[in-house]
Write a structure and sequence with these properties.
This protein is of the alpha/beta class. It contains 20 helices and 21 strands. Helix 5 runs parallel beside helix 6, helix 10 crosses helix 11 and helix 10 packs across helix 12.
Length: 732
C-alpha cells in the first residue's frame, strides 16, 4: 500500500521485488474537504495526480516483472470515498483504469477499486447506495469499460457504535456499472450495517479485522459481520467453532483485549443480566428441550430458537454455564468490590460469577439484605479461607517443590520441559498424610499427588494471581479453577462443572498450592476419601508415603523423600520376615530402633558429649572442639570447616577408618511457642578400603537447639553407618 507519491511508490515496489504475486495498492484522498483544505487541488488536478501515479506504477511494475518475474495486480482507493461527489468518484476511477490500461476479464487481471469510508459520516444505506448495482445493467457512458473487468472492495470504519439499522428491503439501483466483481471495505459501529447492505447491494469481498482492531475506532469487525450472517442462515465461510482459540491468538498477537460485551466474542455476550431476561432464557431452554426431544423422536432436525440468544453458544465452542446465572446489575460487581476492599482479594471475573451464586443463594434463603460481614463470612466458608475456623477437610501443612532435570539430548535437540516434584504433608480429615506427585509445575504435581494418594481426580482450567501489600509484607494471592479430570484441552475448556479456590501465602508457590486445596475441598464435598488404616498394619505392599504418614502422625517427623525410601526398604525386609504383616506399633518401634531415635536404653557407638564452636577470623571458617563418642570411646576432637557439620565431618575423619561426607541435610520445627524443637535429618555417604566399601545411611535427632539437633543427627547417622558396616562385614 502506498500513497500517490513517486518516492514512496518506488520504495514500495522495491520492497516486494522477487515475490511471486503482489497486489500494489495506491490511494489518494478525493473528497472536496481534502482537495480544498489539505491538498489545495482542483478536481482536475486530483484526477491528474491519480492517473499520473498510476502510470508510474504501471511502468515500475513492468520493469520489476521483467527483472524479477513478480506478477502484479493493481488496486486503487479514492480515499474518503463517502465524502466525495459520486460522479467525481466514478470519473477518477475511470481515469485510473484507463491509465492502468491492462484490466482484463480474468479474475487475476481485474483492476480492484477499493471504496473506503475512512471516517463514517453517513448512514449505512447511504454507503450501500454508492456501491450497489444490478449485475445485468451497464452504464451507457462506460461502454469502453465492461463491468466484469473490475473488482469492488468495501472498507467501512467503526465510529458510531450505537447506530442500529434494520434492513427490510433493498431496491438495487444503477450507480457504477463498470464495477462488477466487488470487494468492500468499511469503518464504525454502523460499519457492520454498512457492510451487510453493501454486500447485499453487490459487493463480493470485505476487508476488515478480527474484533475490529485498527486506527482510530478501528476497522469493520469480521467476527461480528460473519456471525451476523450466520444467524440469518448465511454461511460466512469462516470457522469460529472455537472462538476462544481465536480470541487467544488475536489478543496474544495484538496485545489488545476483547471487551467483555463484544458481540459474539465477549465474556458476557451470552449472559442475561436482568431477572426478566433470565426468566425468558430459562423458559426458552425448557421449551427447547421438549421441542428437540420431539424432533429427535421424529428424525427431524433440531433448530435453535431461543429468546435473547440468536446463536447457540455451543456453535462457538462455549457452554451455557453463565447464561442465566449472573446479574451484574443486581450485585456481582458490588460483591466483588466489597471482597476486594475488606479481604484484599481481586477475584477473576469467572470467580466473581461463582461467588455471586453463593451470595444469591443465601440472600434468597434468608430473604434479607446481605451485610459486609455476611459477604466476607460467606466467602471464607465457601473457599475455606481465613485460618483454622474455616479450614476444609484438606489442609496444607508443609511442602517441598523440587526439580527433576531433563536428560541431555543428542545432536543439540531441545530438552523437554523440566518436571516438578511435590513432597508435602496434608491434613486429611484431621489425619496427617504424606503425599507425593510429579507434574510440569507445582500445581500439576499437587494434583497428581491428590490423584495418586486420595483418588481426587481434578484438572486445572484457570489460574491467576496478584500481589497483596508492598515491600517485606507482600504476599501472593492465587486463584484456581478446577474441573473433573480430563486429558483433552477442549474437554477441560467445555466442562460445565467447576470449583474455584483461593490461597494466600508469602511464597507464590505456596499460595497456588493452597488455592488448589481450597478448590479441591469444594470438589470432594462429603464423599469418603481413602483412609490411612493405622490399626490394620502394614504389609510388604504398603506404599512408602503411607509409612511416612504413620511416622508423621505418631512422631511428628516429616521424613525427607530419600529417607522415606530408605526406611521403606527396612520395613519391607521386616515385613517379609514376619510373614508379610506388621502392626502399627511395631512399625513405630522399628523406626526408633533403626535410627536410635529416642530409645533411652539403646545408644550407638557414636555420640556427642560436649562441643564448642569458634569463628576463625574474617575467613568465615569455623573451628569445632569437643568430646565425641567414637566407636564407643570418649574422644577429644578438633575440626575446621565452613559450618558446624563440615567441621564435625573433618574431626570425625581424623578418627575413623575410611571417609564420610554429607549427602543431604534438612530440618524442620516440631511444636509451637516455647515448646518448639528442631528436628534434623542427615544423609551420610561412607567409603572405606579404597572404595571397596560404600554405604549410605541416615541419622535423625531433635533438640531445642537447632545446632545441637544437627550435630546429634550427624553422629546418629555415623552409628547407623557403623551398624551397616558391621552387618556387611559379617555377611562376608
Amino acid at each position: 500500500m502506498t500513497p500517490a507519491r513517486e518516492d514512496l511508490i518506488r520504495r514500495t515496489i522495491d520492497s516486494v521485488a522477487g515475490a511471486k504475486h503482489v497486489i500494489i495498492h495506491m490511494y489518494n484522498a478525493t473528497s472536496c474537504l481534502f482537495r480544498e483544505v489539505v491538498f489545495r487541488a482542483s478536481q482536475a488536478e486530483t484526477l491528474a495526480l491519480a492517473a499520473k501515479h498510476t502510470e508510474i506504477i504501471r511502468k515500475l511494475t513492468d520493469e520489476c516483472t521483467q527483472k524479477y518475474g513478480t506478477q502484479f495486480r493493481y488496486e486503487y482507493s479514492p480515499e474518503t470515498f463517502t465524502q466525495t461527489e459520486p460522479e467525481f468518484s466514478l470519473e477518477i476511477c475511470e481515469a485510473v483504469k484507463k491509465a492502468w490500461g491492462r484490466a482484463g476479464t480474468a479474475y487475476e487481471e481485474r483492476i480492484i477499486f477499493n471504496l473506503p469510508a475512512t471516517v463514517e459520516i453517513g448512514p449505512p444505506n447511504h454507503y450501500a447506495d454508492l456501491v450497489r448495482i444490478r449485475p445485468y445493467l451497464r452504464d451507457s457512458r462506460l461502454t469502453h469499460t465492461p463491468r466484469w473487468s473490475t473488482s469492488l472492495v468495501i472498507y467501512p470504519s467503526e465510529r458510531r457504535s450505537t447506530s442500529v439499522y434494520t434492513l427490510t428491503m433493498i431496491e438495487v439501483s444503477l450507480r457504477s456499472s463498470h464495477i462488477a466483481s466487488r470487494r468492500l471495505i468499511l469503518n464504525v459501529g454502523q460499519s457492520i450495517a454498512a457492510a451487510e447492505l453493501a454486500m447485499l447491494a453487490g459487493a463480493d469481498r470485505v476487508e476488515g479485522c478480527l474484533f475490529g482492531n485498527g486506527e482510530r475506532t478501528g476497522n469493520v469487525d469480521l467476527v461480528n459481520l460473519a456471525l451476523n450472517l450466520y444467524t440469518q442462515g448465511i454461511s460466512p465461510k469462516l470457522d469460529f467453532s472455537d472462538i476462544q482459540a481465536v480470541i487467544d491468538v488475536v489478543t496474544s498477537c495484538n496485545d489488545l483485549p476483547v471487551h467483555p460485551r463484544h458481540p459474539y466474542a465477549g465474556e458476557l455476550v451470552f449472559t442475561a443480566f436482568s431477572g426478566s431476561h433470565q426468566d425468558a432464557v430459562k423458559k426458552g431452554f425448557e421449551h427447547q428441550r421438549a421441542r428437540w426431544a420431539e424432533a429427535e423422536s421424529k428424525g427431524e432436525r433440531k433448530y435453535w430458537h431461543m429468546p435473547y440468544l440468536p446463536i447457540d453458544p455451543a456453535d462457538l465452542g462455549c457452554n451455557y454455564e453463565a447464561v442465566i446465572r449472573v446479574n451484574a446489575q443486581s450485585g456481582k460487581g458490588g460483591i466483588a468490590y466489597l471482597v476486594q476492599q475488606h479481604l484484599s482479594l481481586d477475584m477473576p471475573r469467572k470467580m466473581q460469577i461463582s461467588f455471586y451464586s453463593v451470595v444469591q443463594e443465601i440472600a434468597d434463603r434468608e430473604a434479607r439484605e446481605m451485610t459486609v460481614e455476611d459477604i466476607t463470612t460467606a466467602f471464607r466458608k465457601a473457599y475455606h479461607y481465613g485460618g483454622s475456623t474455616y479450614e476444609g477437610r484438606l489442609v496444607l501443612k508443609s511442602f517441598k517443590i523440587s526439580a527433576e532435570s531433563s536428560p541431555d539430548l543428542p545432536n543439540g535437540d531441545e530438552a523437554a520441559d523440566e518436571r516438578r516434584q511435590f513432597d508435602g504433608t496434608v491434613s486429611v480429615d484431621g489425619v496427617l498424610r504424606v503425599i507425593r506427585g510429579d507434574g510440569n509445575g507445582p500445581l500439576s504435581a499437587l494434583l497428581d499427588a491428590l490423584r495418586t494418594h486420595l483418588e481426587i481426580d481434578l484438572s486445572l482450567r484457570e489460574y491467576s494471581e496478584h500481589a497483596i501489600g508492598q515491600g517485606q509484607d507482600t504476599k501472593a494471592a492465587s486463584y484456581v479453577e478446577l474441573v473433573p479430570l480430563a486429558r483433552d484441552v477442549k474437554e477441560i475448556r467445555k466442562s460445565t462443572e467447576s470449583w474455584w479456590g483461593v490461597g494466600v501465602d508469602a511464597d507464590i508457590a505456596g499460595s497456588g498450592l493452597r488455592a488448589v486445596l481450597s478448590a479441591a475441598n469444594s470438589a470432594i464435598g462429603d464423599r469418603a476419601l481413602p483412609e490411612l488404616k493405622l490399626s490394620v498394619g502394614y504389609s510388604a505392599k504398603t506404599s512408602q508415603a503411607d509409612i511416612a504418614s504413620v511416622v508423621l502422625n505418631e512422631l511428628y517427623l516429616e521424613l525427607p523423600r530419600r529417607m522415606q525410601a530408605s526406611f521403606f526398604e527396612v520395613v519391607q525386609r521386616a515385613a517379609r520376615e514376619t510373614g508379610g504383616q506388621m502392626a502399627y506399633s511395631e512399625l513405630i518401634q522399628l523406626f526408633r530402633d533403626t535410627y536410635m531415635y529416642e530409645v533411652p536404653d539403646k545408644t550407638g557407638r557414636f555420640g556427642v558429649q560436649s562441643f564448642k564452636m569458634e569463628n576463625l577470623g574474617e575467613s568465615g571458617h569455623k573451628e569445632l572442639t569437643g568430646e565425641f563418642v567414637i566407636n564407643g570411646k570418649l574422644t577429644k576432637v578438633v575440626g575446621r570447616g565452613n559450618g558446624l557439620l563440615t567441621a564435625a565431618i573433618a574431626a570425625l575423619n581424623e578418627h575413623i577408618d575410611g571417609k564420610v561426607s554429607i549427602r543431604e541435610y534438612t530440618e524442620h520445627s516440631i511444636g509451637e511457642g516455647s515448646e518448639v524443637k528442631a528436628a534434623s535429618y542427615v544423609e551420610l555417604a561412607y567409603e572405606a578400603n579404597g572404595g571397596a566399601i560404600k554405604l549410605n545411611a541416615w541419622g535423625i535427632a531433635k533438640d531445642t537447639d537447632i545446632t545441637a539437633s544437627g550435630l546429634k543427627a550427624l553422629l546418629n547417622g555415623m552409628s547407623r553407618v557403623d551398624y551397616l558396616h558391621s552387618e556387611l562385614t559379617s555377611k562376608k
